[in-house]
Amino acid sequence: MARAAAVDSVGLEGRVAALATRSIKRDTKVWGLELAIRCMDLTTLEGSDTTGKIVAMCAKAIGPDPMRPEVPSVAAVCIYPQHVPVTVEQLRGTGVNVASVAGGFPAGLGSLGSRLHEIRDVVDAGADEIDIVLNRSLFLGGRYAEAFEELLAAREAAGSTHLKVILETGELGSYDRVRQASMLAMAAGADFIKTSTGKIGVSATLPVALCMLEAVRDFRAQTGRLVGVKVAGGVRRAKQALQHLVLVHETVGMEYMTPDLFRIGASSLLNDVLMQLEKERTGHYSGPDYFTND
Amino acid sequence: MSDRLEVRRTAKLYIGGTFPRSESGRSYEVTAHDGRPLAQVSQASRKDLREAVVAARGAFTAWSGATAYLRGQILYRVAEMMEGRRAQFEAELADTGADDPARGVSVSIDRWVWYAGWADKLAQVVGATNPVAGPYFNFTLPEPTGVVGIVAPGDQSLLGLVSRLAPAIVSGNTAVVIASERSPLPAVSLAEVLATSDVPSGVVNILTGITVELVPWLASHMDVNGIDVTGVPDDLLADTEYAAAENVKRVHRAPRADPFDEAAQSPYEITAFTELKTVWHPMGA
Amino acid sequence: MSEAIERPAGGAPPAWEYASAPESTDVVRLEDRYGLFIGGEFVEPKSGRWFPTISPSTEETLAEVAEADAADVARAVDAARDAAPAWQGLAPAERAKYVFRIARQLQERAREFAVLETMNGGKPIKESRDVDVPLAAAHFFYYAGWADKLEYAFPGRGTPKPVGVAGQIIPWNFPLLMAAWKLAPALAAGNTAVLKPAETTPLTALLLGQVMQEADLPPGVVNIITGAGETGAALVDASVDKIAFTGSTEVGKAIRRATAGSGKRLTLELGGKAANIVFEDAPLDQAVEGVINGIFFNQGHVCCAGSRLLVQEPVFDVLLAKLKDRLQTLRVGDPLDKNTDVGAINSKAQLDKIEELVASGVEEGAEIYQPECDLPERGFWFRPTLFTGVSQSHRIAREEIFGPVLSILTFRTPEEAVEKANNTPYGLSAGIWTEKGSRILHMAQRLRAGVVWANTFNRFDPTSPFGGYKESGFGREGGLHGLEPYLTFDGADR
User: Fold this and answer.
1) Beta-strand pair B37-42/B128-129
2) pTM for the model
3) Is the confidence metric ipTM above 0.90 for this complex?
4) Which residues of B touch A9 (CB under 8 A)?
5) Cβ(A131)–Cβ(A194) under 8 Å?
């Protein structure tokens, strides 16, 4: 693998700060908010998830605002492997994808065999997309070749199923490492690189997203292959979602402003986006009681 | 013994570590304070000055790049060598009519020692780290200006010269000196000391000659970065500053302090020919 | 339950558009005419002459300002001279508080200053809002604290005393910020001042005059006179003790000549032709931002602009491609729009100069690249421009363009980069982009420039000394070193 270019953190964060002040035209904002919904992986990854919870969330995923059928569905529902069958059932024919974490989420430290087995399982169960984790133990320990081999094996196990690789950037310690991990995952055949599991304190920050977008941009320039970016965890407000979209637009352009190449993994973001859409539609601010809690 | 003929010294220029005569072939007579003829001294031309600047420029990178410790040691070595030749300097000062030649030589030697000690302290006194409002490490350091022209004072032909030369070169500048026109012999002897003091060739170049003839060429030379006008006659100062504008030379004139006074030596005489460089670097993981 | 509902696919928008987000100009109340600020009041010029000042982005006249002639200059200098004893006699801690007040008042009226700066100078509001005005306030704040601590600044140098009356001539690229760079250290050190802003951008300086009034600064301590080159020349010739000038090297040399033999103290902050040096191992995406910021910040009207890009050959292609991509995203236009990256060229004269030099670059065989972008019909505009295939002997590699024009050269080794970077009569700033620490220090040591930015560019701070080597001028502004030009010690001129 080619040497990954270095990243200067102060410069990167400075660029993000500059872009965060962009103001967006109203029409663009409405489109962007709807895009945020269309790019959303509505997520629940709790030990307490039940069939009832999953069913409710699927309904929300299909029709986020019962009062407004013109509001688009989200891109996918993201759940643990055990809930794949019920989710497949709920989402059949809706266009909303089933995304399952797999491969020993979130630590990724089970035996390789069991992790690969889990990947094959969710493929067999009908998941459209699989979110696996980079083995940070190997990566941070400098055992890059082994980390790379594991990702290759996961890629093979997933077959043609859409594969996202979670880098867990909050554990990597620096943007250079984020970029390096991005390159590693892309070289191993990831369809998407994803920031975070949502299970640790630090999740999808704007600078991390920019760093990964710059990596996919360079990968595109070098190989011609388009790899998507998923920001996950910590994106709770519509404003943050729009800031991420500004980064996408300024870094990789309109080509990437589609659920095929950009995703936002979130659980509580959806209602805030709906509220903002409502505000743009009606001209006044709305409140949480007007949106369903599923 | 008495019928042995003395071997006289020829007073020559000092350029690039060598002792040439003026390319013009000219010389002028130097007399003692009582009118006694002392020597024929080379009368430098503008072409000699040009060669001296070339030599000084050539020496700049290595001298400014030498460690401060090494420059300090070399300046101290100059003091050592002067001490060894003090009789010669005293005799020359006596010829100029100096009141107390021994004291003149002693203070000159001590001045070299004083400035030698500044070599590795200046940056600590006049440099800074600057607490900028952002994630950057920022520091400021003094650096030598480049090639400095020094018009040595007409009187105090030794101490006056040393008081201008030592602060100029201790920071890493190289120098082209126009010696006292009337009493150039101590400067010629100083050149001979410098040549044997590990001062690299070209770091100091000493021209003897007619001040008013040489100063305009020095002041207008585009490859001279600074000019010490302490020895420029008052009526020539405006023209000198005017000519110095062409390449934005730093122009400095020493305070009118008694050169024997300790107030005549100051680190701020060094900074007259230093530049401040400020470097920024982000601090991030 | 899972019955398919027809959901909209969301279709592509016509374009991802940033709002035209013009900052309101309501905050600025312009007078029809501005007199000279002398002795604490705005007065009619003795010259009887006035000249219009325009917005370079619309060419509309904003106001008329007085043109000071030699008699007006003398009046301002007299006012400064008269105010000097009391100002110098004030307890330093009290002097400090006046300067603090100015800083606070600037912060208080920040938005007004930012909008006016953009209206009069053409720079993007995001720069005047985020850089010029906050930094100007920060300069007053920083130097205010020095006023009663001067004896700690230059150890062993004797008792510091003010120089007297300072004549200060500032350029049009950072009108308010340069006024702050000049006035803040002068006032803190106990000097009084006569400030002359550039003829194309006098308005924020005049507004600063109002701030001086609001701060109850004693009349005459700061005087602000407007006019063009002749007014500046009259100020240089007037009976001031010190001249501080920021501007072109050509005018700087003329001032040096004019002051020759006068005994006036002088500091000059002049032109530059900085090399921004990108090594193979640089953090490339941040280097791109640094290069873009280095040359397009304030339309390239920056003396320390990184106008020569030196790229190590292995990354030339990739860096150039990234730069061209990035250029496409630059938004050129209405400077009052918060999304604008590149505003208006400051004046017709400057636009002519840029166009002439760019034409010479094309004629000398360099390859020009400019992004597609619409330019407003009125006002003075120039597209962000890259030149490749530039050699050291081209005019665009040697002369200061002072516009949004980048000349790109390549190098192979660090030695070659140093040699090319230093091969200029200027020496104001330089940039280094590499991940290798030892190389940064090696390069920083060898570059003959007063400010070296490593892995960043165009950073400014009141604590950080700024100024040039060689023909970029002498003296420093900012930091404790920036006090020196405004102090004298025990009467000794050192």
Assistant:
1) unpaired
2) 0.94
3) yes
4) 282, 284-285
5) yes
